[in-house]
Design goal:
This is Small CPxCG-related zinc finger protein. This protein is an alpha+beta fold. 20% of the residues lie in helices and 30% in strands.
Amino acid sequence: MAGTEPCDGCGTPTEDPLARTVQLRVDRSEVDSQRLCPECFADWIEEYRTRMQPGAKKPTVDTDADIIVD
C-alpha cells in the first residue's frame, strides 16, 4: 500500500492521511520527530497535557542511564 509506514509508537502500519508527525525543535534545530497513528497521537497529547498542568509531578530522570561502561 503506497504511503503506508509504521507508527513510531506502536509499529502499526499507518497510511499518510491518518498519520500525525510530532516534531521537537530547539533553537530551530530538530531534536526529535515521530510519526504516530491516531491512537498513539492521542496518548502523546494526553501525556503532554498532563505534564504541562500546574503542579504536575515531574518525571524522574536517571542521569546514569546513558553511561556506558566497557
